[in-house]
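Example 74, ligand zinc ion.
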Amino acid sequence: MHDFDDIELFECPRCHGPGLIQEENGWCLYVECLDCGCHTAELPFHSEEERQSVARHLATTWNLGKVISPAIGD
Ligand SMILES: [Zn+2]
């Protein structure tokens, strides 16, 4: 399920690449840059309602530029 179409993501704060909401095994979400690989912290969810609010929170975090750099040599 990728129904986050109404959530706006700015371009990557580091490289201006495209950001995408990623879902990890159905229990947590994060936003990742498809170009440089930097990402927000992962946030777990426990229900569909929580999943939507987590996605919105992550989008805000991403849009504020609060991202983690990918590991060196990754
Ligand atoms: Zn990037």
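Summary: The mean pLDDT is 92.
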